[in-house]
Design goal:
Rossmann fold; 11 helices; seven-stranded mixed sheet; alpha/beta; binds S-adenosylmethionine; Helicase, Ruva Protein, domain 3
């Protein structure tokens, strides 16, 4: 194979990424090559002998070097597809995960007409923006402690056409929020703080610490959300929270102690309970 054709660059990059530990080296290499050269997948298939310009080659080599140092492709490209829409991702936001689509599916089944939703710890806005985009009659508020993350959520909301129905508020959990909501959602940080150092470098080195640590046992945000949710839940409303592996029983205990009833366990595609629902117990 002649050097520096698309095919040879792809093969070499894939081999390098495999050696550095990527589980999807060919896919990673292809996405990076497409982005560096402004090409589609069809371009690669139809023109494997094409060559890159010097500038494109330099960009591609930079991308591959970053990926070899465990930076996720979505962070290198600054974009992640979530529930069929592309979200901008920056170092200030969690990289939205496919598992979080579980809470979307659960919420879509529950949302009443003209639903009012509250998304706590919105990051890129993936949850709130997706639900508002799927339900054009819904309105919502999304909060985050990080103003830099909220700026990304604002940009995503504008690009995805829901900014007129989404209010973004900076502050801790319920602190900046007033009013009642039909559905309160959160994918809070839920990793026990002592486990962060042992996470994959893709997560540990690139997701913001604020998006990961849930305190000593990983459950602090659930305690705060459970204690504040009743004051913001409309009659018949539902709380939906994403959880980490093995946290279901503990999180249910926390909500039950605050007067909620468990109202559904929702599993991700891997079969793990990923999302819990809660109703307000009737008085
Ligand atoms: C696990 S990330 C989830 C982001 C987004 N909802 C998603 O699912 O991709 C948790 C988010 O909570 C935010 N956060 C952390 N502590 C917070 C707090 N005290 N109040 C509000 N948001 C907080 C982080 O900045 C981060 O954006």
């Amino acid at each position: 194979m002649p050097p520096d054709t698309l095919a040879s660059l792809l093969a070499a990059a894939s081999a390098r990424l495999k050696a550095s530990g990527s589980e999807t080296p060919m896919l990673d290499a292809r996405l990076l090559l497409q982005a560096a050269a402004g090409l589609t997948r069809e371009d690669l298939i139809l023109g494997p002998d094409r060559q890159l310009s010097r500038e494109q080659l330099s960009v591609f080599e930079g991308f591959v070097g970053r990926r070899a140092h465990h930076e996720p492709v979505s962070r290198i490209l600054g974009a992640r597809e979530f529930y069929g829409r592309v979200f901008r991702v920056t170092p200030h936001t969690l990289d939205p995960r496919p598992d979080t689509e579980t809470i979307i599916e659960a919420a879509l089944k529950l949302m009443p007409q003209a639903a009012r939703l509250l998304d706590l710890g919105t990051g890129t806005g993936a949850i709130a923006i997706t639900l508002l985009a799927e339900r054009p009659d819904a309105t919502g508020i999304a909060t985050d402690l990080s103003p830099a993350a909220l700026a990304v959520a604002r940009e995503n909301a504008e690009r995805l056409g829901v900014a007129g129905r989404l209010t973004l508020l900076a502050g801790s959990w319920f602190a900046p929020v007033s009013g009642l909501f039909d559905i309160i959602l959160s994918n809070p940080p839920y990793i026990p703080s002592g486990e962060i150092a042992g996470l994959d470098p893709e997560v540990r080195n690139f997701d913001p610490a604020l998006a990961l640590s849930g305190g000593t046992d990983g459950l602090d945000p659930y305690r705060i959300i459970a204690s504040g949710a009743a004051a913001h839940l409309a009659a018949g409303g539902r709380v939906l929270v994403e959880i980490g592996a093995g946290q279901a029983a503990d999180v249910e205990r926390i909500f039950v102690a605050r007067g909620f009833l468990p109202a559904g366990r929702h599993s991700d595609l891997g079969g793990h309970v990923r999302c819990l629902g809660f109703n307000r117990a009737q008085k």
